[in-house]
Write a structure and sequence with these properties.
single chain, Rossmann fold, 7 helices
């Protein structure tokens, strides 16, 4: 799963890495765990960008999630583009069945587009091509372990966009 962080503030004189969630973003994030549980997905591992807004998204979003995944804060997710994010995914232990990456735009939508192959949900694919709103999460599936993932080798089965 690829999750774009919830809506963040844009205060003056605050570095991008230290931007916090806005009140609407806190509301968005607080609904994520229950939405993932309702969709029948729960991560074993979370790779979360080290930025404040992604950490807050995960902390609020994990409430209501029917799982206790291992969480790794990663500077590489903060700075990743779609291809370098795929390289991070390939490094995930093959025992991990469900991975959640909490990151930023345009990387989350580009990575979903990059990974989506034949059989992908057409509406979800068209949306990731133009970018996804805050607190949106793409669900991709593949039979291969993460170490063998490559471009166009997964199926984009859904794009969930919680209301603000």
């Amino acid at each position: 799963m690829l999750l774009r962080h919830a809506k963040a503030e844009h205060p003056e004189r605050v570095e991008d890495h230290e931007r916090a969630l806005a009140l609407p973003g806190r509301k968005q994030a607080s609904r994520l765990g229950a939405a993932m549980t309702a969709a029948g997905v729960a991560p074993d591992l979370v790779l979360c960008s080290s930025s404040l807004r992604t950490r807050q998204t995960w902390e609020l979003g994990s409430v209501g999630l029917d799982a206790q995944p291992r969480v790794e804060l990663r500077d590489e997710v903060y700075s990743a583009d779609g291809r370098s994010l795929l390289e991070l995914v390939r490094q995930v232990d093959d025992e991990v069945r469900t991975l959640l990456v909490v990151g930023h735009e345009p990387t989350m939508s580009f990575a979903a587009e990059l990974l989506a192959g034949p059989g992908s949900d057409e509406a979800a694919y068209l949306r990731v091509q133009v970018g996804v709103p805050t607190a949106s999460w793409s669900v991709l599936e593949a039979d291969a372990p993460f170490s063998q993932w490559q471009a166009s080798a997964a199926t984009l089965v859904a794009l969930h966009t919680p209301s603000s």
